[in-house]
Amino acid sequence: MQGCDGSILLDDTSSFTGEKTAIPNKNSARGFEVIDKIKSAVEEVCPGVVSCADILAVTARDSVEILGGPSWDVKLGRRDARTTSKSAANKDIPAPTSSLNQLISRYNALGLSTKDLVALS
């Protein structure tokens, strides 16, 4: 889990346990099959060009905007992660039991506003 690198999409392998089953992602992160379908469609048109990380960034932005939230420019060119860490996800992703003040403080420490917190939640 190193930012917007698509690492949440990685399934467990013999060398690592992915973050899909990390505590903060349980009953929260979902829709993986939608991203898989988008990736398959994109690969048919331009194979090996668009990363899963870019697809996640664009779909997140579009979803927020469709629901009436803000829009923003998405810089493309991210590289997909090749590994991930469930323990890092458990440590770095806010717990589902975090209070509003804890979330605001955490986002502010990352240079993000309360509006960003709402849009990204």
Automatic annotation (TrEMBL):
Catalytic activity: 2 a phenolic donor + H2O2 = 2 a phenolic radical donor + 2 H2O
This enzyme's EC code(s): 1.11.1.7
Keyword vocabulary terms for this entry: Calcium, Heme, Iron, Metal-binding, Oxidoreductase, Peroxidase
Domain Plant heme peroxidase family profile span(s) in chain numbering: 1-121
Signal peptide limits: none
UniProt cross-references to InterPro entries, sorted A to Z: Haem_peroxidase, Haem_peroxidase_sf, Peroxidase_pln
Presence of keyword Aminoacyl-tRNA synthetase: no
GO terms, molecular function: heme binding; lactoperoxidase activity; metal ion binding
Enzyme class: oxidoreductase
Sites where the protein binds substrate: P94
UniProt binding sites for Ca(2+): G3, D5, S7, E19
Cofactor note: Binds 2 calcium ions per subunit.
Cofactor(s) needed by this chain: heme b; Ca(2+)
One annotated GO biological process: response to oxidative stress
Family assignment from sequence similarity: Belongs to the peroxidase family.
Name the UniProt record assigns to this protein: peroxidase
Organism: Trifolium medium
